[in-house]
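Human: Can I borrow your eye for a moment on a structure tokenisation matter? Separate attempts, laid side by side, tell us more than any discussion would. Could you pick a protein and write out its sequence and tokenised fold? No explanation is needed for now; the record alone will do.

Assistant:
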Amino acid sequence: QPTKGNLRLGKIPESQIEKIFSTLEQNHPHFSEIIEFLREQCQLSQLFGDGVFRFPAFVVDGKPGIGKTYFVQDFSKLTGIPYQRIDCANTTAGFEFTGSSMSWRNGKPGRVFDAIVENGLLNQIIVLDELDKMSISEQYNPINGLYSLLEPITARNFRDEAINVPANFEYLNWISTCNDYFKLPLPIQSRFRHFHIEEPGKENMIKITQSVYKNLLLENSWGVNFSSTLPEGIIQFMVEKGLPPRLSKRILQDSCIKAALRSKGSKQSDLTNIELKISDIAIGALPKEKTIGFL
């Protein structure tokens, strides 16, 4: 199967670096250590390399719903470097990474090879989501399929089982997420730099809630009809509930629908600059207890 265009390496323009990482700091203040790490890697590629964006493999661990996947999505969108998410909780065999021989009835290329064929970018981001939940047994150990991809020497001459042609995969950028770092096998721990994300404090939660709302509006065509900022009362209400980003986004989206219907029902002629009210919040969707405690 041909690639959609020539294989290439993605670069981040030097003029965009500060804007990208300033936005990440604003949207994800509790990810400051990772953001600084990635900023340094980006600057390093500009100083001593050819501008091709690469970073050492790292793992992000923290409680569910703390914003790990949301951060990766935002990072990918801002840098323009696409990502391929692999759900490790549902990965049962190593051939999902390395491919399986076409001599088998169900033989096919692995997910990594498919990702490169899809967009032709050799240094895209491969996200191993919930790596600690991968099912491992004596008979099947999917993680074994990762080692040849994670080691630079073997990645330079990687052979997908289905294609059986050497290819250079050393430019891939690897991020894994997990809820419990210490459940990962030691050989995997040694191949990933470790970042632990703590629950955000109240001040950071205010920034995150506003950021989630802002991105929600940008992602939907109807977003132009709403006020660009959340009222302070709404922010305080949601922060006090200790809502993680994933749940905040869902509740805010439902609330925007209620606000739009409310505005239409009031026979407002111009459905623009709609502002959310406390009464628009989908109370039934809120957890009975805080899901994130303030630090």
